[in-house]
């Protein structure tokens, strides 16, 4: 993978995140890592000046094993893949790292950096530094139908805003 400037990153987050999905990964070789599939999230700018800091927003339910790693670590990565890996992403989104080494059941190869992990097969990797965490709260919903639709068990996500500090692309 090669490092590029964020300005040279050309991707459509409206397609990439909800339709093609991504892997959210936190942790590293020394402390251990975990990964899960995510299809809810955003990319854009906030804080800083001008267009804001390049940032991602992710949403993680409390019961995800990956959440323990996201909460513990300063960094998380978002990995995007070609269609060839959709089956692996589906697997990693149905199985928990609590029950064993789920990555070993896929064709994906972890690559360890300084305080983060990504996958060699990714076409794009965003390394993000956590800036902000907040719970989604019931009182915040202006459209209450979303509560019944997405939270019948009231297991509201935590949202995290992370500054994109490194962009890696294949090649
Ligand atoms: C397509 C897809 C998208 C998903 N998106 C999210 C998400 O955005 N946030 C979330 O908390 N869980 C999401 N999940 C569920 C987790 O990936 C799933 O519960 C996973 O098994 C958690 O693994 P872990 O316990 O090892 O962290 C998604 C699952 C799939 C299949």
Spatial gap, N to C terminus: 5 Å
* Class computed from helices, strands and strand pairing: alpha+beta
Taken from the alpha-carbon principal axes, the silhouette is globular
Bound molecules: flavin mononucleotide
Q: From the 3D coordinates, which CATH architecture would you assign?
A: Roll
Please name the fourth-level CATH homologous superfamily.
Electron Transport, Fmn-binding Protein, Chain A
Poorly predicted sequence stretches spanning 5 or more consecutive residues: none
> Helicity, in percent?
10-25%
Radius of gyration: 16 Å
Structural account:
The N and C termini lie close together (5 Å). It is built from four helices and ten strands. Helices cover 17% and strands 39% of the residues. Strands 1, 2, 3, 4, 5, 6, 9 and 10 form an eight-stranded antiparallel β-sheet that branches. Strands 7-8 form a two-stranded antiparallel ribbon. With 171 residues, the protein is of the alpha+beta class. It has one domain: Electron Transport, Fmn-binding Protein, Chain A (Pnp Oxidase, Chain A, Roll), CATH 2.30.110. The radius of gyration is 16 Å and the shape is globular. A hairpin with a 4-residue loop joins strand 7 (110-112) and strand 8 (117-119). Residues 21, 34, 36-40, 59-61, 64-66, 90, 93-98, 157 line the site of flavin mononucleotide.
Topology summary:
Layout: E1 2-4, H1 13-20, E2 22-28, E3 32-38, E4 41-46, E5 53-60, H2 65-72, E6 75-80, H3 86-92, E7 110-112, E8 117-119, E9 124-135, H4 145-150, E10 158-169
Antiparallel strand pairs: 1-10, 2-3, 2-6, 4-5, 5-10, 6-9, 7-8, 9-10
The chain binds flavin mononucleotide.
Residues 21, 34, 36-40, 59-61, 64-66, 90, 93-98, 157 line the site of flavin mononucleotide.
